[in-house]
Amino acid sequence: MTWLITGGAGYIGAHVARSMTEAGERVVVLDDVSSGVPERLPADIPLVRGSLLDRETVDRALAGHAVTGVVHLAAKKQVGESVERPLAYYRENVHGLTVLLEAVVAAGVERFLFSSSAAVYGVPDVELITEETPAVPISPYGETKLTGEWLVRATGRAHGLSTACLRYFNVAGAARPELSDTGVFNIIPMFFDRVTRGEPMRIFGDDYATPDGTCVRDYIHVADLAEAHLAVARRLAGRTGPGDLTYNIGRGEGVSVRELAELVGEITGDPTPPVVGPRRAGDAARAVASVEAITAELGWTARRGVREMVESAWEGWRLRHPAVAAD
Length: 327
Known about the structure:
alpha/beta, Rossmann fold, UDP-galactose 4-epimerase, domain 1, seven-stranded parallel beta sheet, 14 strands
């Protein structure tokens, strides 16, 4: 098998690419490097620079490297931005996927793994979210991911592809400091940014129906997420003909925002209490995955805890902020 990983120079993509190559899989990366960092990739992983919207580039990547399976991670992924720029999100996430699938079918590639999101569920009022929980997204980003799942499954049925859709929960941490998240869009980097600027961490709402009043989330270490991709890719490699796998990827355990802030304070050495602001629109009180399906069917389970996520993310943050490391 040779796997094409779209978005493979990104934060998650580079972890997936390294995990798969270290396990002996052949990998090639397609990335427009708009947010990806080519230096994240080992020199022996070929990098094709280009957009999914460019069919010629996609065709060249598939044919030039004799690709037999695709792991599709490339996408725009900021919920707030998707509300402001829905057309851009549908163009990149849905039209880009359509171009990719057309190329995949034309090239005779028979295995396709799609990076989806827990955002497809919206704000379900359940203790644990299973793969059967109704998908009712509340943002354009979530809509594009659910539309992508529909498109992937329909293509699989029509053209004989074995497909998988992985619904990520909250991804954090780094396998190595140089692979850490460079954005300040997720909660842990947002906390680090406040600490670095000498400002208290900010919590959005503390009046939810949860034990401490703050939102409860399921956090998954990016290295565990990468290992989940490897497990699913290998299951797809052993299958022939159409068929779909859909799995939640999380730890199945909830951590409140206040608990996370306290842990960040401990690890960064900043005991300043967080400040509480108003709720953000669309935040669910609780969003925790049931991961029974992937554990039962593939034997995969997350091995790393939240402390390891925060500690490894802080190492990466300090690497990119030398002034912090010098303190």
